[in-house]
Write a structure and sequence with these properties.
This protein is α/β, with parallel strands linked by helices. Helices cover 43% and strands 22% of the residues. Strand 6, helix 6 and strand 7 form a beta-alpha-beta unit.
């Protein structure tokens, strides 16, 4: 976690994300990149107001205001020794954030989010959700200010053997960084029901295969997988949920959805996600 990116619109959740990223960077002796993405209005050229000139002037004004805000935030919250880089760029928030991450070798994207629900969730989606779906690096979503430390990480498990190795290695690194206990959990629902005895043996085999340490094995019964994850996390007072996501897009995403994105939208816990390499699906 040496290179951390935080898209910041100066809202309360965004400030919470900045504060969390600064604390992580202090422990990792890393750098925090703060970017403010400006989505310029769509205008048309006229003799009285050429678009190019208007956009340039607007971006200059917004950049100056954002830089003032960035300085206030870093002066107030940045621990001594943490390097902070900030920039103001124009574009679509999700796309521009991902492009910046690729260009600057970002290890982790930290985002504040209000979440999404109802019409917005199903037909528009939050920026956090879009970035979770498309990012090739881990994304951490935070809504409330978190003082820390992260002591317990909930790791919902699908017990699939294919495509999981990269995800598990990332989760192990996450656990090691925070010196946290890993709570591996299988959510037993009516649609994917297996006996507790069988599931416990499979979870034990999973932990042994990946040489996990400082962990617990859990089976949690609930009618709904998403709600089961959130209720289990609440029950054990978990600090963070770590999940793999399949990265589906287009019609595939609409039809099949994403459990990780649903959890991101609805939980108040910190959620860390990672798109498994062989699970990026274009439709």
């Amino acid at each position: 976690m040496k290179n951390i990116l935080v898209p910041c619109d100066f809202s309360k959740p965004a400030i919470n994300a900045v504060r969390f990223a600064l604390d992580v960077a202090a422990n990792a002796q890393g750098t925090v990149h703060l970017i403010n993405v400006v989505e310029l209005p769509v205008l048309h050229d006229t003799m009285l107001m050429p678009v190019l000139s208007f956009e340039e002037q607007l971006l200059i004004e917004l950049r100056e205001k954002a830089e003032v805000e960035f300085k206030k935030i870093t002066e107030k919250y940045a621990p001594e020794g943490v390097k902070v880089i900030y920039n103001v760029v124009s574009g679509v928030i999700a796309k521009t954030t991902l492009e910046y991450a690729n260009q600057h070798a970002i290890d982790l994207i930290v985002m504040g989010s209000h979440g999404a629900s109802g019409f917005k969730e199903y037909f528009i989606g939050s920026n956090a959700e879009k970035i979770v779906r498309s990012s090739t690096v881990p994304v951490l979503i935070i809504k409330q200010h978190y003082k820390g430390p992260v002591k317990s990480i909930v790791f919902p498990n699908t017990l699939e053997t294919e495509h999981q190795e990269d995800l598990v290695m990332k989760v192990k690194a996450l656990q090691h960084f925070f010196h946290a206990t890993l709570h591996i959990v299988w959510i037993n629902t009516p649609l994917n029901f297996t006996s507790d005895t069988v599931t416990h043996e499979r979870l034990k085999a999973f932990a042994k295969r990946f040489m996990l340490k400082d962990y617990t094995i859990n089976v949690f019964n609930h009618p709904n997988e998403e709600e089961g994850i959130m209720k289990f996390t609440h029950m054990i007072k978990g600090d963070m949920i770590a999940m793999g996501t399949h990265g589906r897009k287009g019609i595939s995403h609409i039809l099949l959805g994403s459990l990780a994105e649903d959890v991101v939208n609805h939980t108040e816990n910190i959620v860390w996600t990672y798109a498994m390499k062989n699970e990026h699906v274009e439709a």
